[in-house]
Design a protein that fits this description.
The chain has 166 residues and is an alpha/beta fold. A 5-stranded parallel sheet has the order 3-2-1-4-5. It contains 10 helices and 5 strands; from the N terminus they run βααβααβααβαβααα. β4, α7 and β5 form a beta-alpha-beta unit.
């Protein structure tokens, strides 16, 4: 399985101590140079920097389609998102890990299957890797990932957990 990652899921899942769930999704995860720099170099000392930098299963790979990246940048995406989408398209990746809405919509329009931090947690719950999603969803929210109450409720119901009232 070919999996390409943008920075968001790497940062958010590392922040809640669940980066390894990405590794369980795929033996190798590819990240473009700008994503690696965003998480590890620019983000030094922040959640995900040390974990991503030390993960032997995360490999940096550059997209060769500079025209695609340029077009995605012109459409308003950030460099990491643009490179991640271009790499996923070029490699015909099975999944692109991305949280940002505009990037997700763009990738899907280009035929790329996407999954975000919440989707990775759902897959982990289904596999039995995590016993309950509610604490992880609240931790994701605390890490800075915006999740609406209604989304959390829908996700918890979908996996057979009772939503907690706010």
């Amino acid at each position: 399985m070919i999996v390409v990652a943008d920075a968001g899921p790497l940062i958010h899942l590392a922040a809640i101590g669940q980066l390894e769930l990405i590794h369980r999704l795929s033996q190798e995860v590819l990240v473009p140079p700008s994503v690696f720099d965003e998480v590890v170099v620019v983000g030094a000392g922040l959640p995900g920097a040390a974990e991503v930098g030390a993960a032997p299963w995360i490999r940096v790979a550059s997209p060769s389609g500079g025209d695609v990246v340029a077009a995605l940048l012109a459409a308003g995406l950030h460099l990491g998102e643009a490179q991640a989408i271009a790499l996923a398209v070029e490699l015909r990746a099975d999944r692109l890990l991305i949280d940002e809405r505009q990037g997700r919509v763009t990738a899907e329009a280009m035929g790329v299957a996407v999954v975000g931090s919440v989707g990775i947690l759902i897959a982990a719950k289904v596999r039995g890797d995590v016993p309950a999603l509610a604490p992880h969803l609240e931790a994701l929210r605390a890490s800075g990932l915006w999740l609406s109450d209604s989304l959390i409720a829908r996700v918890l119901l979908a996996v057979g957990e009772r939503p907690v009232g706010r």
